[in-house]
Amino acid sequence: MRVLFAALASAGHAYPMVPLAVAARDAGHEVHFAAGEHVHAPLDRLGLSPFRSADSFYEIYAEDLEPDLKRLRPDLVVHGWGVPEVAVAARRAGIPALWHGFGRLFPEGIGLERPAGGTHLDICPPSLQDKDFLATAERIALRPVPFAEPGDFRRPLIYLTLGTAFGTPEVLQTAIEGLAALGTHVVVATGGVTLGALPPHVTARAWVPQAAAIHHADLVVHHGGSGTTVGALAAGVPQLVLPQGADQFANADALLTAGAAVRLLPGELSADAVTDQARKASACRDAARALAAEIAEMPSPDEVARELPKHAK
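^ thats the sequence. predicted structure below, dont judge the formating
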């Protein structure tokens, strides 16, 4: 069977789809991956045959993908929530397609079109997922398996990231100052943001192998992006969320309700507040571990990959 995966060219959208793509490849299926060149290198290393559709660099429109559907003639298309036009292209070509989620269903008004209809590969634990989506959507549960390059870290550490789109020097510096007061080693993924002088127990890198860092972390401090949210949940690590935009406020609300995180809104942010909330986050450990146990019970990518031919033409 030939399977075509398609995603926005960002780690937050493409990487959640990689475990299933690898599992499909390992099951003997021919896998191709349509995305912008920003994510081609890791996809290529995994043998997922990445390519850029037409002249699209980030978004993929139906017209971008139609020539590739004719060329590849896939039996099944698996496309991320962020590329709804791929669903249009697959429907026009008469090819079955599945939506692939990247976390909790995002709210209206964040700049992405909400997915409608069809069957969804849902990587969000049900207890955290949008209740209306749970009640109305056709879902296939899929265990989230964070994808990242290997990394060498040692406990104890605090992992801090604001992603690649929402980080600013002011917010990062404030968070670093507050976390440094705890005396624990802090690993910061700057996303390319330039920082000033740092305390000796703070390590800052433009890019950090996130799954490895989270695996060794006692606390994850982040912006509320879906990838970091789900990655920390899968590892059972408490979170301090500093939402900045997009779906991050909704993710923070859901984590707060579940008791797996504490939160600071933009108007509440200060170094002292970060220190205080980081200390309080330890009380979230039991709830975080309960969500990790829920995630561990979800069907693995290998299990779901074995069922993919049922959805093909």
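The domain at 2-144+298-311 is CATH 3.40.50.2000 (Rossmann fold).
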